[in-house]
């Protein structure tokens, strides 16, 4: 688990009236990118809240288009094609890879993914580290894209779920490495009330074991093949986790599992499918190409 807040407070703490600042202690620095991102979320959410209260957001939630069945669309695609349902990710940049697509138009990419045969879309909403935006969700919806949309955000508070639903998201991501089960349980319930489905993301067997103790009524699961502490990607992580007792329980309970990150070619799709995944989440390999529709067809081996 990452530390949710800097143990000794913010990086620069004003001290007295002369603008003197106490530098952060070494032990209080973020240990990895996930901590850094999550620590910044607290400030970002405070800022968002100043501009738009949760009351204002609930009015917008009331007016938002009704949520679509994200998990259902993935299962239907799996049934139709005999291949994992594709969640194609609208992602301009990432902390590990920098800018992936300089000629980035979220709506155009979303439309191309849909035309190519994606079942669902994932839309990065984090601005600072991924150059994403909640506005992309609304723009993609307004452009008439029918695929259900996942808000790809580092969620630590229910406020962000309200924001995601208000902007037209149908599902949202919760990361087990960031959230203890008490928070996951609360956020899963909040999401259900808003009509949002959830992907609970794990990276280790221990996280999966813990997450399986939750009521996952409106949720599916995902295994991130990228280690968010050092950015290494290993597809074998999906197989290792799915071969564990917890992985077998996933299949027994009929929970939908997505293989996430590092999927580049049809052999990778086959690999995670054999491991037990009924869905895949793919960004880099699709968004980097100049023709995202063709990239989707190629990945799914559609002619
Ligand atoms: O671009 P890739 O390697 O295909 O990965 C997509 C997706 O899995 C990745 O963006 C991701 C998985 N979990 C996340 C959590 C936050 C931000 C991003 C992610």
Automatic annotation (TrEMBL):
GO MF terms held by the record: indole-3-glycerol-phosphate synthase activity; phosphoribosylanthranilate isomerase activity
EC number(s) per entry: 4.1.1.48
Biological-process GO terms, alphabetical: L-tryptophan biosynthetic process
Residue span(s) of domain Indole-3-glycerol phosphate synthase: 34-299
Keyword NADP attributed: no
Keywords, ordered alphabetically: Amino-acid biosynthesis, Aromatic amino acid biosynthesis, Decarboxylase, Lyase, Tryptophan biosynthesis
Catalytic activity of the protein: 1-(2-carboxyphenylamino)-1-deoxy-D-ribulose 5-phosphate + H(+) = (1S,2R)-1-C-(indol-3-yl)glycerol 3-phosphate + CO2 + H2O
Keyword Amino-acid biosynthesis: yes
Entry-linked InterPro entries: Aldolase_TIM, Indole-3-glycerol_P_synth, Indole-3-glycerol_P_synth_dom, Indole-3-GlycerolPSynthase_CS, RibuloseP-bd_barrel
HAMAP family per the UniProt record, alphabetical: IGPS_B (MF_00134_B)
Name used for this protein in its record: indole-3-glycerol-phosphate synthase
UniProt organism field: Elliptochloris bilobata
């Amino acid at each position: 688990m990452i530390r949710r807040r800097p143990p000794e407070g913010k990086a620069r703490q004003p001290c007295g009236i002369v603008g003197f600042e106490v530098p952060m202690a070494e032990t209080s620095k973020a240990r990895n990118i996930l901590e850094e991102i999550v620590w910044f979320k607290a400030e970002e959410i405070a800022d968002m809240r100043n501009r738009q209260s949760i009351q204002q957001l609930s009015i917008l939630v009331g007016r938002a288009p009704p949520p679509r069945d994200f998990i259902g669309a993935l299962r239907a695609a799996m049934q139709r094609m005999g291949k994992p349902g594709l969640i194609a990710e609208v992602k301009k940049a990432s902390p590990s890879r920098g800018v992936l697509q300089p000629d980035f138009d979220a709506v155009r990419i979303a439309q191309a993914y849909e035309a190519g045969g994606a079942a669902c879309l994932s839309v990065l909403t984090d601005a600072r580290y991924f150059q994403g935006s909640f506005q992309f969700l609304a723009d993609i919806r307004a452009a008439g894209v029918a695929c259900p949309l996942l808000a790809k955000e580092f969620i630590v508070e229910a406020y962000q779920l309200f924001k995601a639903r208000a902007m037209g998201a149908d599902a949202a991501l919760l990361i087990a490495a960031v959230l203890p089960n008490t928070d996951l349980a609360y956020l899963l319930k909040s999401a259900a009330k808003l009509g949002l489905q959830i992907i609970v993301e794990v990276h280790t067997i221990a996280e999966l074991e813990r997450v399986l103790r939750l009521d996952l009524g409106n949720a599916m699961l995902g295994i991130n093949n990228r280690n968010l502490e050092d950015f290494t990607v290993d597809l074998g992580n999906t197989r290792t986790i799915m071969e564990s007792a917890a992985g077998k329980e996933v299949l027994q309970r009929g929970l939908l599992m997505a293989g996430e990150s590092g999927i580049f070619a049809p052999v990778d799709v086959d690999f995670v499918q054999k491991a037990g995944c009924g869905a895949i989440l793919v960004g880099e390999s699709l968004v980097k190409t100049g023709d995202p529709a063709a990239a989707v067809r190629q990945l799914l081996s559609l002619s």
